[in-house]
Amino acid sequence: MARPRQALLTRERIITAAATIIDAEGLEAVSTRRLAAELGVQGPSLYHHFGNKEEILDAVADRSRPRSMSPGSAGAHGASPCISGVTRIATPY
Fold first, then answer.
1. How far apart are CA 92 and CA 52, in angstroms?
2. Where are the domains of the chain?
3. Which of 32, 38, 64, 83 has its CA 20 to 30 A from that of 12?
């Protein structure tokens, strides 16, 4: 069978599918087998884009994280009062 001209799978499609499953059914529902089935591919195809399930979940979290909480940003100090309050309380611990 010839390869399609355009890739069937991208990092963004995987992240979006994982986020959709998490939103609908919770974190426990995400597995590489389930993701592959949702995307219409075989499980090993996911590993071309991510090393393991944890990397996929990290990518979902990174995409969901507010910009003020992103690595390399100013941090929670410029974030909403709620986030700043949590940071102020949690920092001593």
1. 34
2. 11-90
3. 83
CA angle 26, 29, 31 (to 5 degrees): 135
Q: Is domain 11-90 annotated with CATH 3.40.50.300? A: no
Residues sharing a CB contact under 8 Å with residue 44, sequence separation 6 or more, in sequence order? none
pTM, two decimal places: 0.66
Provide φ and ψ at 73, rounded to 5°. -90, -175
- Sole residue written with tokens 């219409």: 40
